[in-house]
Amino acid sequence: MSLSTIDIAVFVGFIVAVIALGLYKSKGEGKDSESYFLAGRGLMWWLIGVSLIAANISSEQLVGMSGQAADYLGLAIASYEWMAAVTLSVVAFCFLPYFLRTGIFTMPQFFQKRYGDTTRAIMAFMTMILLIFVSLTGVIYGGALTMSELFAGHSFLDLGLTGWSWTIGIMAAVYIAAGGLNASAWADLIQGIALMIGAAIITWFALDKLGATPVAELAAGGVNPRPVADSAGAIEKLMALNHEKMHMALPKWDMNIPVTAIFLGLWIPNFYYWGLNQYITQRTLGSHSLRQGQKGIVFAAAMKLIIPFIVVIPGIIAFNLYSGELQEIDQRKNAAEWSALNENLGKPESGHAFVPAIQWARFNPDKAAAIDAHNLAVLKAKGVTLDGVDPAALTEEQRFVTIPAALEKIAAADEKFKLHPIQGYKYDAALTLLMRNLLPENTGIRGFVIAALMGAIVSSLAAVLNAASTIFTMDVYQRYISPQATQKGLVFAGRVSVGVFALIGCLMAPNLDKLGSIFSYIQKFQGYASPGILAVFVFGMLNRRGPGLCGVVGLLVNPVLYWALDEYTTLAFLDAMGVCFFSVLVLMWIIALVKPLPERFEFQVNTTMDLDESKGAKLMGGILILITLGLYIVFW
Predict the structure, then answer these.
(1) What is the mean pLDDT of residues 18-24?
(2) Which helix (H) or strand (E) holds 352?
(3) May I ask the CATH class of domain 37-102+120-330+431-514+609-635?
(4) Closest CA to 593 of 539, 552, 636
(5) Which of 4-13, 519-528, 580-589 has the lowest mean pLDDT?
(6) Where are the alpha helices (DSSP H) in 509-614?
(7) Where are the domain boundaries for CATH 1.20.1730.10 in the chain?
(8) Choice between 170 and 28, residue whose per-residue pLDDT is larger
(9) What is the pTM of this model?
């Protein structure tokens, strides 16, 4: 992607301004743990709202979500955003009052108040693992991948994947170590606003290009496109070419977002992420008052309704405009898989089998049929029979779920057996292609949009570093390493841990290049913790007679059950989360019946903060829930 002098100046200027603001706001923020980790509990609603969005939307969201929209998922991926509007509205009035009332710094502290020390320790350990080895490394990798591709071939900004990993990690660590949450929130204000404007700019140019391109030069995003004239507007072309992608409900067999997940499974990571995930909730814990926190959360909920229109829609358009380039990139990056397909297809004795991606198979029915025949022959040679499978009339569920599951069992038992994914298109390149091909040169727009993307990456990374350092300091260091630590000692420990965690993330991030979709990786891995954490929280609120043992068992059973469902069933990971959530709830309820507390547990007030609710925010939250329901009805 070529950049002019003005683009580079805008890019560098933006980054310098953000870091400078963070450092400026860091003055005096190291005097005690509350000012450093929770911004002195002085954040106002507008700062909270924008900061929540900036912390949430990063490279894995922008790149991964637009990429999955370019794939067969289309608008269905927007459920992660639109459901968040409902989730946030609930969190503001059902979760936040309890958190602020108890005066906690971290989520593990809240679990301690309800269940005891052991539950807090387990929760802290699980949260640290997720923050450092999933969120932190995922954000650094996704950002470094995007920046390295955008600046490939540039004279002094072509740092490669590893170089950009270190650049991004150091940038975020500098102002977080200096100023904590206050520095992060103020930097987020610039970066969050720039992110929304940058995404809107890309959407504008994508729609303009779609409207101006003859239909014959556009790839349909569905196998049965509707006829549309060259003179039609962008929206009309979008709906005609992608009408199959403009729906929220996918088949129940889908492994990404089955229709069943909309009613159950998808709510679990949503409520965990927005209500119990430290690097998100830390912004709300720093609220000046309950009113300010609730207004900020509802403000963020309103912005979440906009995100699909400026992230998902451009991803869908990217396939229409650049399907050929997406295919070329995939063939170049996955040359080994394509070589194996060409060499071994039709030779079941070769020990190779292939899993075609859904959209590629739909657009290449003959090649997909040849792969089906090959895979069935492989299974037959291995002595595996599949009941109800007619080779002459395979259903999509059999092609994309039943047969791959049988092949995966063989691959797990035989190291010599090779199972190759055939993606067909490199969907995660969708956003990069839009930026490279559509944004005008010599105007500064390219520099601004890239800076906005960089800002989103750094904001999310800073949020993760701040959350991880808070949990380490308050839940590990103060309790087990130095119980007598002074306030300055706690702040020093937090700053040191920021540097250590950034170092770990920068070292590990380049190794994630072997994965497929980083967005899917992060969402799927969360299942080892999020259903159990959410179940323990919900149970603790609804059943006040459950003993501390409930929290311990709930947190420990979930990862084992989730692993078993992933290993031994063909359940989509979101459906598996639903099973884990209700299984853990039932188990805890049984324990409470057998060994109840002698008295009902009550949360004690431990703050002088104003805890009056915001009636205006509650009204707006209700309106947002109705709007979300309307969007699902329109696009169902």
Answers:
(1) 77
(2) strand 352-356
(3) mainly alpha
(4) 539
(5) 519-528
(6) 518-525, 530-542, 548-568, 573-594
(7) 37-102+120-330+431-514+609-635
(8) 170
(9) 0.85
